[in-house]
Amino acid sequence: MQIRTMPVGQMGTNAYLLEDEHTGTAAVIDPGAEGERILAQAKADGVEIRLILLTHAHFDHTGGLSALHRALPDVPVYLHPADRARLGDDIFPALDVPTLPYEDGDVLQLGGLDIQVLHTPGHTPGGVCLMVGDALFTGDTLFQGSMGRVDFGGSYEDIMASLKRLAGLPGDFRVLPGHMGATTLERERRTNYYMQQAREG
């Protein structure tokens, strides 16, 4: 398993290429902008994009979808139904590509990799984290030393419950968030004020 991080767009959203080097396949996670650049990187890496996965539907995580869909019209795009239901305003802009639903507990296959879906509402109603191997893609739920804001269609109570759930996962993970740098789950358990508050709540 290889992971390529690509900050894209004016907000520096982390788009990820999750690659199974054994099968030459890849998933794009949160193509927030610069779809052509993501396509070019996949080509340079010698991988075929098979999945496009959205942790949530805010504009800065979906802006590159159109370019990807034009180039890859048969590649499925996954989005939680609770965010799909919100589409159509400035914060959750309408998408011009079809999406498939995924729910808590679903497992998607990418080559030899299993991608488990964790529904983690709070930043948005349909926010998800994606767990594969030792990696946890947290979207805008959990950041290094922080958490996602809740004033763009979210809920403080829900994100606290989601952080508590993430803190309770067994073992450690590489945390790959939607913005800023990577961290680890154990580091966030020890140092993240919001996660500590969630665990105590």
In a few lines, what is going on in this structure?
It comes from Flavonifractor hominis. With 201 residues, the protein is of the alpha/beta class. The protein has helices spanning 35-45, 59-62, 65-71, 81-84, 156-167, 185-191, 193-200, and strands at 2-8, 13-20, 25-29, 48-53, 77-79, 100-101, 107-110, 113-119, 128-132, 135-139, 142-143, 146-147, 174-177, 183-184.
Properties at a glance:
single chain, 201 residues, alpha/beta, Metallo-beta-lactamase, Chain A, 6-stranded mixed β-sheet, 7 helices, 26% helix, globular
SSE layout and pairing:
Elements: E1 2-8, E2 13-20, E3 25-29, H1 35-45, E4 48-53, H2 59-62, H3 65-71, E5 77-79, H4 81-84, E6 100-101, E7 107-110, E8 113-119, E9 128-132, E10 135-139, E11 142-143, E12 146-147, H5 156-167, E13 174-177, E14 183-184, H6 185-191, H7 193-200
Parallel strand pairs: 3-4, 4-5, 5-6, 10-13
Antiparallel strand pairs: 1-2, 2-3, 7-8, 8-9, 9-10, 11-12, 13-14
Helix pairs in contact: 1-3, 5-7
Protein name: MBL fold metallo-hydrolase
InterPro entries: MBL_Glyoxalase_II, Metallo-B-lactamas, RibonucZ/Hydroxyglut_hydro
Cofactor: Zn(2+)
